[in-house]
Specification:
The complex is a heterodimer. Chain A is α+β, with helices and mostly antiparallel strands. Helix content of chain A is 15%, strand content 40%. The mean pLDDT of chain A is 95. Chain B has a domain of 76 residues: Hotdog Thioesterase (Thiol Ester Dehydrase, Chain A, Roll). Chain B has a 5-stranded antiparallel sheet with strand order 1-3-4-5-2, covered by helices on one side. The chains are: A alpha+beta, B alpha+beta.
Chain lengths: 149, 116
């Protein structure tokens, strides 16, 4: 079982990355983690989810959005965060279920799409891909965030 | 927007934010430090945007079932923060438009659709 805090650099624990140091086009290296039934249960509780919604073909599945709590680790492992980052826009596409009655090893990587200025503020857009260790494509995401100076 | 087909409501407190923060594994003081959040010009600490987006995903799971788990897509913009004490109302209509509001103030807009 991988808790997000096991793989995600936390704000304030190391020097954060200024927006000027983030390069458009740079690749975010592969990250491996596991989602266990315990993680799924804790995530369900964290959003007050209705557990009855999450079954398929007679098996328990994770809300696909359980990946949300791992997403930023893909970015922060290369670019440790500064305090005060604010998410502004996201897109997620979910391709295949994550079973909740077993532990799934997941491989994620990503890319910095662009960095841009809007009304004098710094923003960046980046993407992340998630697949199971057997190669099944699970989800893709694109994230836009505001980077405080 | 068409008549709401799916709706949920969540009470957000600092405890709610802290609980999400434990699984999220972050240490961003914008979520936990009231004084810092006020200095940044917010009403209070901010709920995690992805927590609120998770509420929208819950509605999509209700609405689409398997078509959500195998081929669902969601796009959101956060337009205003959610702070402790807020009651967030989230709606998903039959065309896939999703919105979350605190009182009359929109906090999130977007779309959430199952596989076509």
């Amino acid at each position: 079982m991988t808790r997000p805090s096991d793989v995600k650099p936390r704000e304030g624990e190391q020097p954060g990355t200024p927006s000027s140091a983030i390069d458009a086009g740079s690749l975010l290296p592969e990250m491996r983690f596991t989602i266990s039934p315990e993680i799924v249960e804790e995530y369900l509780a964290s959003i007050d989810a209705d557990r009855s919604l999450y079954s398929l073909d007679g098996r328990a599945i994770a809300p696909p959005n359980v990946l949300f709590v791992y997403q930023l680790a893909v970015l922060y492992r290369k670019y440790p965060p500064i305090q005060g980052i604010i998410l502004t826009e996201q897109t997620w596409d979910f391709h295949a279920p994550i079973w909740a009655d077993e532990t799934t090893e997941i491989v994620a990587d990503g890319k910095i799409v662009e960095r841009f200025e809007k009304r004098g503020k710094q923003f960046m857009r980046w993407s992340a891909d998630f697949r199971s260790s057997n190669g099944t494509k699970l989800a893709t995401s694109t994230n836009t965030m505001y980077l405080p100076e | 927007m068409q008549a709401t087909e799916h709706h949920l409501q969540r009470n957000v407190s600092q405890e709610t934010i802290d609980r999400y923060g434990r699984i999220n594994g972050d240490n961003d003081i914008i979520h936990y430090d009231q004084d810092y959040a006020l200095k940044r010009g917010f009403r209070g600490t901010l709920a995690h945007g992805l927590m609120v987006m998770g509420y929208a995903c819950e509605l999509a799971a209700q609405a689409h079932g398997e078509r959500w788990f195998r081929g669902g897509s969601i796009h959101v913009k956060w337009v205003d923060p959610v702070c402790p004490g807020d009651v967030v109302a989230v709606d998903l209509d039959g065309e896939g438009n999703v919105r979350a509001a605190v009182g009359e103030e929109l906090v999130l807009v977007g779309t959430a659709r199952g596989r076509a």
